[in-house]
Amino acid sequence: MRKIHVAKDPQELSQIAGQLFFKKAQDAIKTSGRFSVALSGGSTPKRFYQHLADDFAERINWDMVHLFWGDERNVAPDHKDSNFRMVNETLLKSLPIPPNIYRIKGENKPKSAAKGYENEILNYFGENEVVFDLIFLGMGDDGHTASLFPESKALDINDRWVTENYIEKLNAWRITFTSKTINAARDIIFLVSGTGKAKILKNVLETQSGTYPSQMIQPTNGNILWLIDEAAANELNKKIT
Ligand code: 6PG
User: Is the minimum distance from the CB of 42 to ligand 1 under 6 angstroms?
Assistant: First the structure.
């Protein structure tokens, strides 16, 4: 089921995201003794990760949290563009107990990094279905999400959980969840903030064009929440919010 929630500003968006992370973590840990969550990269979630560090470091059993990434750049973990490095600096360094971390090894060759990560995911879920409890996503102003960019080969891959993906316009390799992995999740939360995303957000949410990779994200059995701020929601038809 699709829901849209408009937060006043980036701070409130991060606070709501923090509360949702906390609630879903508590529910999953209570039900199954562990919480599998995949984080997104980019700049939007930084404030949210910092908020988790500031307000939830002592409130979550981090040793029962299994932390994945929805995508990674093909760089080493200490590279300025690394999504791992960003999460490490905004969140992981501040936690009293480290979560169980499953890092995409961006320092490896793209195909090997993708295969290795897919094996880690399959090992984690074992005989069970690959169903993450929660996946956070961002959205670029071209409608990409994770590293599923328009016109890139990964959009057509639906028999794998993780794939390498060459992004022409960036002249760079990425490693990314496929839409199959994302759509299998129990809960998906998009975090979209700022006036720069208002136009693309309107196109993605209000047209069924299928033009944008973010429109491929349609949960199979789970829920999807578009957690956006007023600036990003500015061009939306008020009826849908
Ligand atoms: C990445 C992300 C990517 C990001 C969007 C939005 O690795 O960069 O996974 O999908 O979420 O590009 O990025 P911003 O939050 O910086 O706008």
Answer: yes
Ligand 1 centroid distance, CA of 43 (Å): 7
Contacts of 36 (CB under 8 A, 6+ apart): 28, 66, 68, 124, 132, 133, 134
The reply to whether ligand 1 has any atom less than 6 angstroms from the CB of 83 is yes
Residue 85, pLDDT score: 98
**Per-residue confidence (pLDDT) for residue 57, from 0 to 100:** 97
Q: Which of 90, 139, 174, 177 to mutate to test the pocket of ligand 1 (most atoms within 8 A of CB)?
A: 139
Tokens of 177: 């969840």
Name the pairing type of β-strands 134-137 and 65-69: unpaired
pLDDT, residue 47, reads 98
Is this structure's pTM higher than 0.70? yes
Round to whole Å and give the CA distance between 24 and 20. Answer: 6
Is the shortest distance between the CB of 140 and ligand 1 below 6 Å?
yes
Average confidence (pLDDT) per 10 residues, the chain, 241 residues = 95 98 98 98 98 98 98 98 98 96 98 98 95 98 98 97 98 98 98 98 92 96 98 90 69
- Residue 6's H or E segment, with its range, is strand 2-7
Nearest alpha carbon to residue 176 among 151, 149, 150: 149
Atom of ligand 1 nearest to the CA of 73: 7
| Cα 198 from Cα 233, distance rounded (Å) | 6
